[in-house]
Amino acid sequence: QLQLVESGGGLVQPGGSLRLSCAASGSALDNYAIGWFRQAPGKEREWVSCISRNDGSTYYADSVKGRFTISRENAKNTVYLQMNSLKPEDTAVYYCAAGRSATFTPKWYTYWGQGTQVTVSS
Residue 87: phi, psi to the nearest 5? Predict the structure, then answer.
């Protein structure tokens, strides 16, 4: 069974950068579409980005487009989320998820990581 572990979160100042990693075990990650979601306190889980399993197409929420980049490194069985120009409103727990299709709908993802906290504050 596929297991996902996120890492790379932390405290960063506004305008700074972080790179989140989603490392997989138990199966090859390139068999799955991967999504990144985030959830801030008191808010619903929000889709951030996803990458397809077939042709590597990438998709972004409007709120992060131009600032975040999702990518795969199949040799390391890992997907990354590079986050630049971070804003306080990006503060949330970030989750990666694996499923059959690249979609913004959480229910279509079967496997989820435990999340990593990102805090953007001066």
Answer: -120, 155
Q: How confident is the model at residue 55 (pLDDT cuts 50, 70, 90)?
A: confident
Least Cα distance to 92 among 33, 23, 34, 6 occurs for 6
The CA distance from 122 to 76, in Å, is: 34
Task: Report the C-alpha gap between 99 and 113 in whole angstroms.
Answer: 12
Whole-number pLDDT of residue 30:
86
CA distance 39 to 95: 8
Q: What is the mean pLDDT of residues 81-96?
A: 98
Please state, in angstroms and rounded to a whole number, the distance separating the CA atoms of residues 93 and 41: 9
